[in-house]
């Protein structure tokens, strides 16, 4: 059985980002630390657990992004992934999810995967679309927001629980090949192991050019969101902040 | 019903309208400047007629009741939506950015060669009269204004983002059609109702919620002590704390957890992503403590304290202990 996990590199924290000088995207030259999208860590972990509990399972990973995005493939090798593919895309530019999914599907179609996993959304662009669109491009059934997965190899099917609002769950059977988007909390993602990192040190990452997809939407501008409430910022040092909070809570009569 | 440029895909549960359907109507009216004529709502279900009449009378919008001849899973829903879109060739198709909507709408867009703009919380008209769609990015720190380059374009509306208005005029027209579904790839085995939820959070006057910014599970003790300073309080948390096993599910606040509305909500080290905000925005007074002055949570707060959460709590406790108040 072959599993492909789609992973994305995102900034370690959004605190370092700002609106770009041209105003039409995010400035990331100030970002020094990147990580694997948290939801994708859960997706990769789920694939690795299937690999460990069944025989003859290969887990590949694929990412789309600028050159630095290769770092998440290295991390995936450290966690136990077998082969990594990198689709080179522009940095500092809004990527249309349709175009991303078209490129991912084009590369994924070159392998023969029984299962494709990805995170339920990316922490930076928050689209929640890439997996569903990639599946549709490949003509595969898709279940989004999976919180439990069990493989029935004989029946070539999966039993999946997907999560809805308020914690309601749908229990679904889907035949393989298929794609699942994985929700956080399904497992506890492992840390890369030093031995695997060392073994993967000179392992290749195959990079292909991310050309030829046609974007269907453009980003016209980035704005700071409007305040929905009073948003009074307490000025001064910690002592002043403590006093002010105390004063407000006293006034609201909620202190014991 | 041939002059329809805007198609709304209603959301149903057991053939009843879900509230998010009216959020889609509010967004559609924003796009048309209040006119209902160019809007069509498709109400798709195994037995949708009653919901369709209700939608037509509660909104004044013309409604197409689409009876589907199979049990409905997301792949059948996608087929049915593509069928309706094919009949009317709308410029925009509005779907909810709900668990159900995110399951089928992006794939629907691929089928229609359409752009798909997700989690839309605002509509803006630019100088050239184009519609731009505002969506939250980077954990809520920014809004991106997105312009679709295709017609149709699928627009996924964030639940709760648009002001729903009651309607009292004449009802819209209702037409009916049947969709013969092809074979589906998914089989539904059953629905599990929500896991144990907390009456504690429902009853609390004050909720002190912890997010990833508290750093480590051991720091929850300080959060609990902080909460204990307020009689009738409860401890809540953002989803990652539940995912990591630091808190039990019954403490989770947000779209996939509890929706709460205490008098005072204190967010400690929570970034303020849309999924968290959806669960606490009905609170009376919101206080946020976060070390990042640009954190999105401050846009949803009455009082904003920029500080390291653990250091601040310690100082607050000292202040109370020393009786300085
Ligand atoms: C389908 C779906 C459903 C979801 N449902 C929910 C839900 O029900 N509830 C929910 O909460 N989330 C939900 N999420 C997850 C959500 O998108 C966010 O990932 C999550 O809310 C982020 O939690 P957080 O704010 O604790 O963490 P982060 O986003 O990591 O934010 C941590 C914050 O702490 C601050 N911080 C860091 N260090 C300190 C310090 N020392 N002192 C003070 N502040 C500090 C940072 O500036 C940052 O703002 C859902 C996601 C999806 C895709």
Describe the protein's topology.
The complex is a heterodimer of chains A (256) and B (325).
Chain A: E1 2-6, E2 9-11, E3 18-19, E4 26-27, E5 34-36, H1 38-53, E6 58-65, H2 70-79, E7 83-88, H3 97-108, E8 115-119, H4 130-138, E9 142-152, E10 157-163, E11 169-175, E12 178-182, H5 194-199, E13 205-209, E14 217-223, E15 232-233, H6 238-251
Chain B: E1 6-9, E2 12-13, E3 16-17, H1 20-32, E4 39-45, H2 49-59, E5 62-68, H3 74-88, E6 92-96, H4 99-111, E7 115-125, E8 131-137, E9 142-148, E10 153-157, E11 174-179, E12 186-192, H5 199-203, E13 206-210, H6 220-228, E14 233-237, H7 239-243, E15 264-268, H8 274-280, E16 285-290, E17 303-306, H9 309-321
Bound molecules: flavin-adenine dinucleotide.
Brief rundown of the structure:
The complex is a heterodimer of chains A (256) and B (325). Chain A has 256 residues and is α/β, with parallel strands linked by helices.
Q: Which value, in Å, is the CA radius of gyration of chain B? A: 22 Å
CATH class of chain A: Alpha Beta
What is the tally of helical segments of chain A? Answer: 6
- Please, how many domains of chain B? 2
Instruction: Give the rounded overall mean pLDDT of chain B.
Output: 95
CATH superfamily of chain A: HUPs
Please tell me how large the radius of gyration of chain A is.
21 Å
The biggest beta sheet of chain A is recorded as: 9 strands, mixed
- Sheet having the most strands of chain B: 9 strands, mixed
What's the CATH class label of the largest domain in chain B? Alpha Beta
Give the proportion of residues in helices of chain A. 25-40%
Distance between the termini of chain A: 60 Å
Encode the helix/strand succession of chain B as letters. EEEHEHEHEHEEEEEEHEHEHEHEEH
Q: How many β strands of chain B by DSSP?
A: 17
Description of the molecule:
- The complex is a heterodimer of chains A (256) and B (325).
- Chain A has one domain (2-209): HUPs (Rossmann fold).
- Helices cover 26% and strands 30% of the residues of chain A.
- Chain A is built from 6 helices and 15 strands.
- Chain A has a 9-stranded mixed sheet with strand order 11-10-9-12-8-1-6-7-13, with helices on both faces. Chain A has a two-stranded antiparallel ribbon with strand order 2-5. A two-stranded antiparallel sheet of chain A has the order 3-4.
- In chain A, helix 3 packs across helix 4 (130-138).
- Chain B contains 9 helices and 17 strands.
- Chain B is α/β, with parallel strands linked by helices.
- Chain B has 2 domains: 6-179, HUPs (Rossmann fold), CATH 3.40.50.620; 199-321, 3-Layer(aba) Sandwich (Rossmann fold).
- Chain B is elongated.
- The chains are: A alpha/beta (256), B alpha/beta (325).
- Strand 14 (217-223) of chain A pairs antiparallel with strand 9 (142-148) of chain B, so a sheet runs across the interface.
- Flavin-adenine dinucleotide sits between chains B (139, 211-213, 238-240, 252-257, 269-271, 273, 275-276, 279, 290-292, 295, 308-309) and A (15, 120-121, 145).
